[in-house]
Specification:
The chain is mainly beta and 263 residues long. The chain has two domains: 105 residues, Sandwich (Immunoglobulin-like), CATH 2.60.40; 109 residues, Immunoglobulin-like. Strands 2-10-9-4-5-6 form a six-stranded mixed beta sheet, with no helix packed on it. The chain has a five-stranded antiparallel beta sheet with strand order 16-15-14-19-20, with no helix packed on it. Belongs to the immunoglobulin superfamily. CEA family. It comes from Mus musculus (Mouse).
Length: 263
C-alpha cells in the first residue's frame, strides 16, 4: 500500500496533488454520521503485529460492506466485500492473504509491514442500497533500538468448540500457544480492555481469578487461558479478545468472532 498521504493504492493510477491532512497519531476519523466509527487497535504498530480496524455501531440496516486500501473505494484497491445475511466474503484484488473480514464490519490484518501503513476505507450499503463511506488509518514502524520484539500475535490462537453455536448451549473458547512466564491474562467482550466489558482475568502471581460482574455465574476460566461460557444467548454474539502480559511486560492478543444461531 502507498503512503498514507496518497489517495490511490498500489497498482492503481497515481493521483498527484490530491492529499489528505494526515496525523499518524490519530486513529479516529469522523464519518458522515456521528454513530458509525472505526478505531485502529493499535493505531501505531510494530512490524509483525496484528492490527484490527474495529467498527463501532454498524447500523442494523447495513446489508453488505467492502474494505479498500487507500482513502477511496477504487475497485483495484478492494480488499474484500462481505454480505452480512449469508456471512459470505469475496476477496478483492488488494487482498494479500493476511486480511480477515468480521461479520460486524471490522477488518483484521495479520503480520503487518511498513507498507501497510496508511488509510483504509470502509463502504457500507444499507437495505435501500444507500452507500456510506468512512476511513481509518494506522502506522507501522520497525522495532526500535532496544525494543524487545513481541512474538507474532498470530501464534496465540483461539478455537471455538463447537464450531456452530446455537442458543442455550455451553461453548468452549480453546486457547493454543499461550505464552510462557505470564503475569496475567484477561478476556473482554469486544476489543477494548474496559472494566465493564471484562469477562474474566487470571493472575499467575497470586493464582487467582476475577470474574466480570455481567458474567459472574456464566463462565469458567482455565489456567491455559481457555474460557467456558455457559448457556449462550443471542446477546453473547460478537468479538471476544484474549490479552496476555508476560513477566517482562510483553503483551499479546487474539480475537475470535462468535456467531450465535437460533435453533
Amino acid at each position: 500500500m502507498m503512503n498514507s498521504a496518497a489517495l490511490s493504492c498500489k497498482d492503481c493510477t497515481s493521483w498527484q496533488g490530491l492529499l489528505f491532512t494526515v496525523s499518524l497519531l490519530t486513529c479516529w476519523l469522523h464519518p458522515t454520521t456521528s454513530h458509525l466509527t472505526i478505531k485502529a487497535v493499535p493505531p501505531i504498530a510494530v512490524e509483525g503485529e496484528n492490527v484490527l480496524l474495529f467498527v463501532h455501531n454498524l447500523p442494523k440496516n447495513v446489508k453488505a460492506f467492502s474494505w479498500y486500501s487507500g482513502a477511496a473505494p477504487f475497485k483495484c484497491c478492494e480488499i474484500a466485500s462481505h454480505v452480512i445475511a449469508t456471512n459470505f466474503t469475496a476477496v478483492g484484488l488488494a487482498h494479500s492473504g493476511r486480511e480477515t473480514v468480521l461479520n460486524n464490519g471490522s477488518l483484521l490484518i495479520k503480520s503487518v509491514t511498513r507498507k501497510d501503513s496508511g488509510y483504509y476505507t470502509l463502504r457500507t450499503l444499507d437495505s435501500t442500497s444507500r452507500p456510506e463511506i468512512i476511513r481509518a488509518e494506522f502506522f507501522v514502524h520497525r522495532p526500535l533500538l532496544g525494543y524487545k520484539k513481541h512474538l507474532t500475535p498470530s501464534q496465540l490462537t483461539i478455537q471455538l468448540v463447537p464450531l456452530r453455536v446455537e442458543e442455550n448451549i455451553n461453548i468452549f473458547l480453546s486457547v493454543f500457544n499461550l505464552p510462557k512466564k505470564l503475569q496475567v491474562f484477561a478476556w473482554h467482550k469486544g476489543v477494548l480492555p474496559l472494566e465493564h466489558l471484562k469477562i474474566a482475568s487470571h493472575s499467575f502471581l497470586t493464582n487467582s481469578t476475577t470474574l466480570g460482574y455481567a458474567y459472574y455465574d456464566r463462565v469458567k476460566v482455565r489456567n491455559d487461558g481457555s474460557l467456558l461460557l455457559f448457556n449462550v444467548k443471542k446477546k453473547d454474539a460478537g468479538l471476544y479478545t484474549l490479552r496476555t502480559v508476560s513477566v517482562d511486560l510483553i503483551s499479546e492478543w487474539a480475537i475470535i468472532d462468535l456467531q450465535v444461531n437460533s435453533k
